[in-house]
C-alpha cells in the first residue's frame, strides 16, 4: 500500500470512529428472548366467585376469588357455571357483575369469555317432524346463543363432550353445530370463539363438523405427554395440531378423583412436562380446570375446605408454555420485590434474603416461590403476577424511589408532628401503596410523585441572618437562605462601615430542617474619627456593602454517577480525532505538492 493510500485509509477510519461521538443518546437495547404467544384457557368455576354465596355447595367456607384475580397471560376464560334449580336468585349478583364489570374489565385486557355447556343440550332441538328442519336448527341455535352468551356480552361457546352418542344423536348434534357455526367460530369470522371440549378419542360427534371449531380442548387429567402425543395424532385428520389445546386440573374440593398433576419436584410434574411439550411441538396452548384450587392437595383440610390460593402453578405454567427463561423470570421477580418493599415494610436484610433466594432458583417454579411462597399463607406477595409485572416494567419508578427515599430521610429526622409533616407522611404512604399494589398506570405514578415532591419541598424552612445595631435597628438588609432538607448553609462574615461586630446570637452555619433558623448579628457604632483640616483633600470612604451569603450544598455521595448528558468527559476524543484528520489531510496535501 502506498503512503497516500495509507493516509486516506487512516482518515476514513478516524471519521467512522467519530460517528458514535455525534450520535444522539439512546437507551441500551438488550436482545429479548424468543417468546411464543400460546393460548391459555382456564375454567372459571362461577359458583366459587365472591358474588355467589351458597350456590352449588355444601361447604360453609366463604368464596375468595373474583374474575379480577384471573392472572395476565390467560386469554380465554370459560365461564363454567352450574346453578341448581331454585338457586337462581343467589346466582344473579354474579351474572350481573359479569355483564357490568368483569366482562368489560377482561375484554379491556384482550381476554375472550366463553360459556360451556354439556353436549346433551344439543340434542333437545324442538321439532315438529321426525327430524329437525334447517329452520328449526337455526332457531334453536339462536335460542342457545340468547340463553348462554349474548345477554352477558360473551364471546363464544364451548361444547363439553364426555359421552358416546348414537349415530342418530350425532346427526342432530351435527345440525345444531352447523347452525351455531353461522354465528360463532371460524366460519362466522366475527371475532367469536367456538370450542369443542372432550376427554376421549370419540370421533363421530366431531369429525363431520370439525371445521366449525376454533380449537379442540382435550382433558388429559392425570396424564403425561405420551397421551398428549397420542390424542393430538388421533385428532390430526380433523383438526390441525396448532388448534389442539390439552389441559390438566387441580384437586377439586370434595372430589374423589386423584389426578396429581402438580406433584413436586416441579420438573417431574405433569404441569411442567405438558407446558414444555406444547411449546416445543407447536400445539395451540393449554388449559387448566378449577384454577382457583391451585396449590391445594388431596389431603385434609384442603380437600374439604375452600381457602385462598396464590395461583403459583398457574402463573408458572403461563411462563413455561410461552418460553420465558429463568433469568427473565428473576428480573421480573426482583422488579416486583423492589417496588413492594416499602408498602410491605421489608427490612434491607429481608430484601437481601429474598434476592439471594431468587438468584439461587434453577427453574421458573423456584423463582416464583420466592415471591409467591409455596402457598398463600407463606407468600411475601400472593398477588404477584409475572406477566403483569412485565407490563409494569415499562413504567419507570426512579423518580418514585428517589422521592420515597428523601421523604423517609426527612421523617426519620424530624421531631414534631406539624401539619406539613403529617401531609408528607400521607403523601409518602400514598405513593408506596400505589407502586406496591397489584397494578398502576404511568399517569397515576407521575401524579403521586409530584404530590410527594411538593410535600418534600414544603418541609425545609429558611435560615435568616439579621444585622442590627445595639438598639435593635436594622443596619443592613437581612440575608435569607433556602435549600433542601439536610443540606448545609453558612452565612459569610459581613463588614459594615462605621460598625464593629459586637455579638452573634444563633449559629451562622447549619443544615436546613423543618424549623426556621435565625442568627442575629449585633454591631456597635464606631466612635467618630478626627476631623480633617480644610486644606486636606476630602476622601469619600463610604461604599455600598454587598451581602455575601450562600447556601453550601451537601457533598456528593460517594460513588454517585454523573448525571445523564454530562459531556465533560466525553468530548476530548472528538478533538483528538479532528486533529488527527486535519493532520492527515495536511500531510496528504504536502505529498501532492511534491
Structural class: alpha/beta
Strand content: 5-15%
Tell me the span between the first and last alpha carbons.
Answer: 19 Å
Spell out the CATH superfamily of the largest domain. Glycosidases
Number of strands: 15
How does the overall form come out from the CA principal axes? elongated
Poorly predicted regions? 1-32, 538-570, 572-576, 587-594
Calculate the mean pLDDT score and round it.
88
Largest sheet: number of strands, sense, barrel closure: 8 strands, parallel, barrel
Give the key terms.
594 residues, alpha/beta, TIM Barrel, Substrate Binding Domain Of Dnak, Chain:A, Domain 2, Ubiquitin-like (UB roll), 4-stranded mixed beta sheet, 16 helices, hydrolase, repeat, secreted
Q: How would you describe the overall organization of this protein?
A:
With 594 residues, the protein is α/β, with parallel strands linked by helices. It folds into 3 domains: 39-324, Glycosidases (TIM Barrel); 395-457, Substrate Binding Domain Of Dnak, Chain:A, Domain 2 (Up-down Bundle); 463-530 and 543-552, Putative peptidoglycan bound protein (lpxtg motif) (Ubiquitin-like (UB roll), Roll). The protein is built from 16 helices and 15 strands. It has helices at residues 3-22, 88-108, 134-148, 167-180, 204-207, 225-235, 270-280, 312-321, 326-340, 348-360, 364-372, 386-392, 398-412, 419-435, 442-457, 572-593; strands spanning 39-45, 76-80, 112-118, 156-161, 193-198, 215-219, 244-249, 285-289, 463-469, 479-481, 488-491, 499-505, 509-511, 517-525, 549-552. It has an 8-stranded parallel beta barrel, surrounded by 4 helices. Helix 5 links the parallel strand 5 (193-198) and strand 6 (215-219). Helix 3 crosses helix 4 and helix 8 (312-321) runs antiparallel to helix 11 (364-372). The radius of gyration is 37 Å and the shape is elongated. The protein starts with a helix and ends with a helix. Residues 1-32, 538-570, 572-576 and 587-594 have low confidence and may be disordered.
Amino acid at each position: 500500500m502506498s503512503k497516500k493510500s495509507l493516509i486516506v485509509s487512516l482518515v476514513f477510519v478516524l471519521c467512522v470512529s467519530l460517528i458514535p461521538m455525534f450520535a444522539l443518546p439512546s437507551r441500551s437495547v438488550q436482545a429479548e428472548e424468543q417468546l411464543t404467544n400460546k393460548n391459555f384457557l382456564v375454567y372459571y368455576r362461577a359458583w366459587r366467585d365472591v358474588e355467589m354465596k351458597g350456590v352449588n355447595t355444601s361447604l360453609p367456607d366463604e368464596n375468595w376469588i373474583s374474575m379480577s384475580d384471573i392472572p395476565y397471560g390467560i386469554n380465554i376464560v370459560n365461564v363454567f357455571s352450574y346453578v341448581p334449580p331454585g338457586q337462581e336468585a343467589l346466582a344473579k349478583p354474579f351474572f350481573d357483575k359479569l355483564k357490568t364489570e368483569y366482562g368489560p374489565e377482561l375484554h379491556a385486557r384482550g381476554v375472550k369469555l366463553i360459556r360451556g355447556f354439556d353436549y346433551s343440550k344439543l340434542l333437545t332441538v324442538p321439532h315438529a317432524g321426525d327430524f329437525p328442519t334447517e329452520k328449526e336448527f337455526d332457531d334453536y341455535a339462536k335460542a342457545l346463543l340468547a340463553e348462554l352468551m349474548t345477554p352477558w356480552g360473551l364471546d363464544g361457546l364451548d361444547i363439553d363432550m364426555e359421552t358416546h352418542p348414537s349415530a342418530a344423536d350425532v346427526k342432530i348434534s351435527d345440525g345444531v353445530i352447523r347452525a351455531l357455526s353461522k354465528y360463532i367460530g371460524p366460519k362466522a369470522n366475527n371475532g367469536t370463539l367456538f370450542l369443542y371440549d372432550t376427554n376421549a378419542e370419540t370421533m363421530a360427534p366431531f369429525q363431520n363438523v370439525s371445521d366449525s371449531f376454533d380449537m379442540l380442548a382435550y382433558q388429559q387429567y392425570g396424564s403425561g405427554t405420551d397421551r398428549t402425543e397420542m390424542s393430538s395424532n388421533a385428532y390430526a385428520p380433523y383438526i390441525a395440531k396448532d388448534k389442539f389445546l390439552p389441559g390438566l386440573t387441580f384437586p377439586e374440593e370434595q372430589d374423589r378423583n386423584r389426578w396429581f398433576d402438580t406433584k413436586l419436584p416441579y420438573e417431574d410434574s405433569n404441569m411442567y412436562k405438558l407446558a414444555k411439550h406444547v411449546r416445543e411441538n407447536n400445539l395451540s396452548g393449554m388449559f387448566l380446570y378449577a384454577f382457583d384450587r391451585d396449590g391445594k392437595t388431596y389431603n385434609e383440610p384442603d380437600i374439604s375446605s375452600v381457602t385462598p390460593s396464590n395461583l403459583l402453578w398457574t402463573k408458572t405454567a403461563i411462563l413455561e408454555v410461552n418460553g420465558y427463561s429463568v433469568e427473565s423470570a428473576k428480573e421480573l421477580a426482583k422488579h416486583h420485590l423492589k417496588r413492594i418493599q416499602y408498602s410491605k415494610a421489608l427490612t434491607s436484610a429481608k430484601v437481601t434474603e429474598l434476592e439471594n433466594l431468587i438468584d439461587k432458583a434453577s427453574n421458573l417454579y423456584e423463582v416464583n416461590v420466592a415471591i409467591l411462597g409455596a402457598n398463600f399463607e407463606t407468600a411475601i406477595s400472593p398477588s404477584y403476577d409475572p406477566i403483569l409485572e412485565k407490563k409494569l416494567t415499562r413504567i419507570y419508578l426512579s423518580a418514585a424511589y428517589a422521592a420515597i427515599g428523601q421523604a423517609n430521610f426527612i421523617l426519620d429526622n424530624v421531631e414534631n408532628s406539624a401539619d406539613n409533616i403529617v401531609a408528607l407522611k400521607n403523601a409518602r404512604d400514598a405513593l408506596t401503596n400505589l407502586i406496591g399494589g397489584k397494578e398502576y398506570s404511568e399517569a397515576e405514578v407521575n401524579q403521586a410523585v409530584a404530590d410527594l415532591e411538593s410535600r418534600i419541598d414544603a418541609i425545609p424552612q429558611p435560615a435568616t441572618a439579621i444585622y442590627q445595631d445595639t438598639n435593635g435597628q436594622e443596619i443592613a438588609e437581612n440575608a435569607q437562605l433556602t435549600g433542601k432538607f439536610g443540606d448545609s448553609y453558612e452565612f459569610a462574615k459581613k463588614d459594615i462601615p462605621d460598625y464593629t461586630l459586637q455579638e452573634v446570637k444563633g449559629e451562622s452555619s447549619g443544615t436546613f430542617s423543618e424549623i426556621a433558623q435565625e442568627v442575629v448579628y449585633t454591631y456597635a457604632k464606631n466612635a467618630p474619627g478626627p476631623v480633617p483640616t480644610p486644606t486636606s483633600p476630602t476622601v469619600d470612604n463610604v461604599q455600598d456593602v454587598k451581602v455575601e451569603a450562600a447556601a453550601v450544598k451537601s457533598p456528593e455521595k460517594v460513588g454517585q454517577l454523573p448525571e445523564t448528558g454530562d459531556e465533560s468527559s466525553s468530548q476530548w476524543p472528538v478533538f483528538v480525532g479532528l486533529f488527527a484528520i486535519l493532520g492527515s489531510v495536511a500531510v496528504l496535501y504536502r505529498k501532492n505538492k511534491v
